[in-house]
Amino acid sequence: MVPSLFTFSLLFLCVGCALAVDITIIPPLVLISGSPAVLAWVGGTPPYSAQVFTSGLLGLPILIDTIATASLLPAAEWTVSVPDGVTSVFFVVEDAVLDIAQTDSIPIQSGLGLPLAK
After folding, report:
1. What are the phi and psi torsion angles at 91 (to 5°)?
2. Beta partners for residue 102, in sequence order
3. Which of 11, 32, 85, 98 lies in the 20 to 30 Å Cα band around 105?
4. Which controlled-vocabulary keywords does the entry list (predicted)?
5. Domain containing 72: what range?
6. Could you give phi then psi for residue 68, rounded to 5 degrees?
7. β-pair partners for 55
């Protein structure tokens, strides 16, 4: 008996699901205003999108920047640039199957390596 196309499709779907891995973000160690920072991640299914957020009123997220859209690479570079008064950000990465990962809040230092004034 010859396996059907449906059987092969189902097999590949099952293998694909078994190989899917949650996204783990590797955040930059330091964020310095005006300097480039590299955000990397492992896992997930490309293409990816990555955004930078800060916490606003009542802790609601406010989008600062989109640093990757439809990226096949598991990394993106962002030049640290935030509105006045923003002292920390967090990153969110989403993959093709809508898995989402988020970093903790990361403080932003001034160009002199000092924390930004609150």
Report:
1. -110, 145
2. 92
3. 98
4. Signal
5. 21-109
6. -155, 135
7. 61
Checking if the pLDDT of 95 tops 50, the result is: yes
The per-residue DSSP string of 41-72 comes to EESS-SSEEEEEEEE-GGG-EEEEEEEEEEES
Partner residues linked to 39 by β-bridges: 76
CATH number of residue 105's parent domain: 2.60.40.1930
Dihedral sign from CA coordinates of 96, 68, 65, 93:
positive
Q: Total structural domains in the chain?
A: 1
Which whole number is the average pLDDT over 77-94?
A: 96
- Predicted confidence band of residue 34 (pLDDT cuts 50, 70, 90): very high
| 98 assigned to some structural domain | yes
Q: Is residue 72 part of a domain?
A: yes
Is 7 among the domain residues?
no
Exposure of 43 by Cβ count < 10 A (0-12 exposed, 13-18 middle, 19+ buried)? middle
